[in-house]
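Sequence in, structure out. Go.
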Amino acid sequence: MNYKYAFFLALGFAMLLLDSNAQTPLLSGHIYDSQTRQPLAGAVIQTLNKEPLTKTDSRGYFEVSKALAMPEVKVTLQGYISQIVGISQAISELNIQLEADGIYLNEVRVGSYNGNKSNKETAGAVAVITTRDISRGTGVSLQPALNAIPGVRMEQSTLSEARISIRGNGVRSSFGIRNVKVYVNEIPVTEADGTTRIEALDINSIGRAEVIKGPASSIYGAGTAGVINFQLQRSPYQEQSLEVSGLTGAYGLNRLATTYRNGGDKVNSYVSYGWHEYDGYRQHSNDMRRFMTGNFQLFPSDKRIISLLINRTTQHSQIPGALTQAEYDADPLQANATNLDKAAARYQNWTRIGVGQQYLFNEHFSNQTSVFTYFYDLDHPLPYAYIRNTYQSYGGRTRFSYNPDFAHFATRFTVGAEYNQGLTKGSQYVNNKGVEGAINSTIDYQNTQYSLFYQSETSLSAHTLLTLGISFNSLNYDVHDYLKPSQTGVKKFNPEATPRLALSHHFSDALSLHGSISSGFSPPSSSEIKNIDGSINPSLQAEKAINYEVNAKGNLFKSRLAYDLALFKMDMKGELIGQSVAQGITIYNNSGKTSHNGVELALSYQGLKAEDGKFISMLRPFAALTYADFKFKDYKTLNAQNEVTAIYDGNPLTGIAPWVLNAGLDIETTNGIYFYGSYFYSDKLSLNDANTAQHPAYSVVNAKLGYKKRIARQFEINLYAGLDNMLNEKYSSIVSLNAVGFGAVAPAYFNPSPGRNGYGGLNFKWLF
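Output:
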């Protein structure tokens, strides 16, 4: 009898064990967006014979319980590049990372507004840039990629200076980037006073960028123009490689870089070191950069992702300066005489360190937090002074997301905060032909900015989403003048509450319709708060904007044609109007109102694609069209005594081209040959508020031809050559708006852009 009991007990235990084994997945893991680290729901895991195995859930998690006959599976998701994943018995928990497809950008999941929805489903004007877009040019400037987005304008004539504007906001910046909030891996690049310089970014290390057009202050704080979220490259999943790349071109352009990649399940590593030098096409325009970037991602558990960013950049750039109309016509290659005499240049070293964590407490509650420190030293001879600065900042950003799984009107809540404190220690000297002379000032600026934000996303129906958001923002500048103690003080801005409301409805794959109302603000920078005598202007406050927008996005003709249409009306008030009162001295007042009405259309058509089985694996024409009806509504300039000196009501907005078109054609073949061509047209634009000077319309044509091929599974080469400004157009990409000529000298508006110029390069990758 005991043997019988033992037999049935053993049989029952064996059956329980077999049942347990049946329930235990043979393979499981998560699938993430390789750049934003957001989980990807709906990704299909299938055999190489296209037999479906499973799908990822809302957390990006999947399980495969079926025994696999092959050592590889295929992962597919619309909007992402399909990937073959090797399976090893040693690793049963995978952390697969998919790369966004640079062609089907309407389907890419975007992290903007913390939504993790496809671009097509996201309420608001959001554009995505991938490595494909950046690689369409030389890779030393973001200008071609950003200018391919309707409503976005990057102006850059020499590598020493860049200005980015979105829907006209930021175009009046006299140096650097204003009104646009910029992040890298969730770490603010924008300083606490709203100033941004992107020269420290190695363009070749950028994996993706999401551009929000229009005020996004409800979740990102200050910035009436919008937000640019850069994500540095991460290594492709299951790739371990070493790449060496070289580039040479006209006007002494040379670049060398080495990149190590390792995309594992527990650690993803990307390390790059690069150097470039550019003699420049103008006199006194040499530019040298050294970049070191480390971007690491760790997966210690299925609930936690830790990221680490280390970036070090050195810039030595000569500044040729702007030319008058007569100088521009006579010899556009010459430098401004004063810049040449004063050896104007920018010598700067940047260091940025950031640590971030994504943590999933449970399927309803998660957090994403990053902390950072950022510092630089600046040696900056200018035509009117010699500046030496050191800057150091620290801060962080955190956001909590909670989905209580309501039975009706499902809602996800997000709350968070951002803090940024920066200390600038600056000294200004007389510039004696590029050498410091007598000291004029020694000033410390301690700038502190923080914001608290809230957002809720409520599903009113299966296809309708209501988004409500608001943020509370505070900013103050603490100024300490050591040589003139009477000018020491604190500038505290009025707290700003910025709401946003958005409603979206997904009708079908052919149409998603969105409407939104959002507000934003942009405070003056710490260099713009002074009166003519150097004292702090107590009445100066932030510019404010309210934006009304309707978007239509979708795919037509069996998803071959993607479109994105936006109509917007943005009203600005309290705009900062600068008035030059002496060389190097500009005072500002809140004395402007402007109206920004516009239409933006982006089109992309897949004439041929890889699935068609043709020799040409991709044939993609595309176009981006912008119409801007931007005008001064109540706009006047004031002198030092706050007396009205001029009224410009009704004039077109300075520096804005009414029509801008960017069109192109991408061709790729099955044997590795590719061609990228683009055409850029800019309408004429006003150079000053009075509209008495204009830059004429111009067109620029660029082309690139290359050959990219993997050889013997271990090596990959990319050989290419290109020609920019093929028509040898004479134009000035970046212009000095409202330039003032002192004495008998005419205003210097023009910073000439390069004429026809070529380049060529080779990338060689060794796959371990």
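Check: The longest helix spans residues 2-23. The chain has six helices and 45 strands.
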